[in-house]
Amino acid sequence: MGLFNKLFNTSSESKDQIVLPWIPLTSLDQLNDLNEKSVAKTQIIFKHSTRCGISRMVLKQFEKDYGFSENNVDLYYLDLIGYRDVSNAIASKFDVYHESPQLLVVKNGIVVAHASHGAINDLDLNRFI
Question: Which CATH number characterizes residue 60's domain?
Fold first, then answer.
């Protein structure tokens, strides 16, 4: 690999892509199910703006650091541009001011933790699992 490729990472070699057990959050019915499931298992919602570079960077870092299995938590991904109604319903239902990117941890029907931007990756999720 040449110096230019090293500096700007223009190599065509594919990097290892991290695949998490994301559940696409696309409907209001799912939001009700998520709320009910939160009694038995922690539910996490990652609200992502597909138009925002900061949101993309935070999402990649979150995926890199994520270390839980499907047995511990259900992990929801919300494309808030495509599903604005679901995003608005989350803010209303859980009484959490909308931000993007944003991570919400739901247990027993309430948001027990939430963070936005860089604070997402500082949140100790182990406390809620």
Answer: 3.40.30.10
